[in-house]
Amino acid sequence: MGIRVALAVHPGTGRGAAARIAGTVAERLRAGVDRLDLLGAAAPSTLTGDLDALVVLGGDGAAHHAVQFCAATGTPLGLVPAGTGNDLARGLGFPLDPVTAADAVVAAVREQRHRTVDLGRVGSTWFATVLCTGFDAAVNARAGRLCWPPGPHRYDLAVLAELAAFRARPVTLTTGTGRFDLDATLVAIGNTAYYGAGMPICPRADPADGLFDVTVIGRATRADLLRILPGLRHGKHLRHPAVRTLRAREVRIEASGWPWCADGEVLAGGPVTVRCVRDALTVLG
């Protein structure tokens, strides 16, 4: 049957960017493989038979759904980024230009170049980038509820709203090396370094070392946050005295009333136990 690849297209990603380039990407892939199956956003779960790779055209939300399909199966995942964040592609070293990424995917499939990376797991949900709770998760959740303004400006408005309302809360972190009780503003568990369209919240995270990097911002005033947040874009937040980091294979977080996000997707609340599963995902390249 030759090389069979499925392309899952998320047309709404990137304010329609994925839909605009879907034909070009499909053409590049079709020229390099023997069979290309075109799928809708939710279609990977309907796939049957042998598959040499699942390629996703979309952003981090699209990648998150594909990870649920590919995790622990050995089916290689390829990313053609077309979202506003593209943090998984960035964290794994995929090209951020979609046409370049499509060509790289074809080359990797034909040359059978695969590698494995770690994933995080919370309950039955896998995540590839960052799981977070606290201020950043609250911003993400609030932005998701807003209908206006369009695009990334929703996040600007959500940040302002959360700065006015947010307060640090008691949090308990339990790892293999101990228990930490503290008032915290934000907890981010990184399998890879980036979230929020390129912010290295866990700048030292390595998705192939079997460990999470955890960034905790302790009790912080609004003035502290206004000093910390601009530095996130360049990893300078680690210099602030309210910020601490640790590494762990498993983390239990108890934080009452906070929302949770993983790969930017909102999860159910409540205490969670997060595990790093080594080599759980096969990726192309």
TrEMBL record:
Superkingdom in the source lineage: Bacteria
The UniProt record lists the keyword DNA-binding: no
E.C. number(s) listed in UniProt: 2.7.1.107
Keyword entries, A-Z: ATP-binding, Kinase, Lipid biosynthesis, Lipid metabolism, Nucleotide-binding, Phospholipid biosynthesis, Phospholipid metabolism, Transferase
Pfam families: DAGK_cat, YegS_C
Residues in the signal sequence: none
Occurrences of domain DAGKc (ranges): 1-126
GO MF annotation list: ATP-dependent diacylglycerol kinase activity
EC class of the enzyme, as a word: transferase
InterPro entries: ATP-NAD_kinase_N, Diacylglycerol_kinase_cat_dom, Lipid_Phosphate_FormReg, NAD/diacylglycerol_kinase_sf, YegS/DAGK_C
Cofactor section: Mg(2+)
PROSITE patterns: DAGK (PS50146)
Annotated family: Belongs to the diacylglycerol/lipid kinase family.
Name of the featured protein: Diacylglycerol kinase (ATP)
High-level lineage: Bacteria, Bacillati, Actinomycetota, Actinomycetes, Pseudonocardiales
